[in-house]
């Protein structure tokens, strides 16, 4: 079982908007195959990929992760300040899915940051379970590519 920390902090996370949120090895995306995989991720507007070790990737359903993390009240700001107002405004802008809008991505980034702040050692089993439930595939580069192509062909939901 992987913790949310290993999924988001010690790995490369690529989302629909090509947000690369953490350190990337030099030359990682030099091959056309990797560029193609990034393009497939972007086109799905729903999934992100994470390289957890050489040759092994995980695909996360960001809609599922967003929905799970929104259920945790402790991740929401409670200070009655500008942050809470921004949070509420973004919450009202969330799309119904299944793909993610820019507001959805903003909210997901905020919630995952809150998880990192509140649980830096990845000991909260509820957060770990949310990440695990959102992981739809653990596999090789080719398996991930096949999954993303199937998703774009609407054979995966």
Biggest sheet, spatial arrangement of strands: 1-2-3-4
Enumerate the spans where pLDDT stays under 50 for 5 or more consecutive residues. Answer: 1-29
Could you give the order of the helices and strands? Answer: HEHEEHHHHEH
- Measured distance between first and last alpha carbons: 24 Å
Helix content: 40-55%
In words, what does this structure look like?
The chain is 49% helix and 13% strand. It has one domain. It is α+β, with helices and mostly antiparallel strands. 27% of the residues are buried. The N terminus is likely disordered. The chain is built from 7 helices and 4 strands. A 4-stranded antiparallel β-sheet has the order 1-2-3-4.
Summarize this structure as a short list of keywords or feature phrases.
157 residues; alpha+beta; 4-stranded antiparallel beta sheet; 4 strands
Task: Walk me through the topology.
Blueprint: H1 4-8, E1 12-14, H2 32-44, E2 47-53, E3 56-61, H3 62-69, H4 82-93, H5 102-118, H6 125-134, E4 135-139, H7 141-152
Helix pairs in contact: 2-7, 3-5, 3-6, 4-5
TL;DR of this structure?
With 157 residues, this protein is an alpha+beta fold. The protein contains seven helices and four strands, in the order αβαββααααβα. Strands 1-2-3-4 form a four-stranded antiparallel β-sheet.
């Amino acid at each position: 079982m992987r913790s949310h920390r290993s999924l988001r902090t010690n790995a490369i996370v690529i989302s629909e908007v090509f947000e690369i949120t953490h350190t990337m090895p030099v030359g990682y995306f030099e091959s056309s195959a990797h560029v193609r995989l990034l393009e497939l991720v972007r086109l799905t507007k729903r999934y992100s990929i994470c390289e957890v070790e050489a040759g092994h990737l995980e695909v996360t359903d960001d809609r599922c992760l967003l929905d799970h993390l929104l259920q945790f009240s402790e991740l929401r700001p409670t200070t009655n300040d500008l942050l809470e107002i921004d949070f509420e405004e973004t919450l009202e802008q969330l799309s119904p899915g299944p793909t993610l809008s820019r507001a959805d991505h903003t909210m997901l980034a905020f919630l995952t940051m809150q998880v990192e702040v509140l649980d830096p050692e990845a000991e909260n089993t509820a957060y770990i379970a949310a990440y695990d439930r959102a992981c739809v595939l653990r596999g090789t580069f080719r398996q991930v590519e096949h999954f993303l192509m199937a998703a774009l062909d609407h054979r995966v939901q």
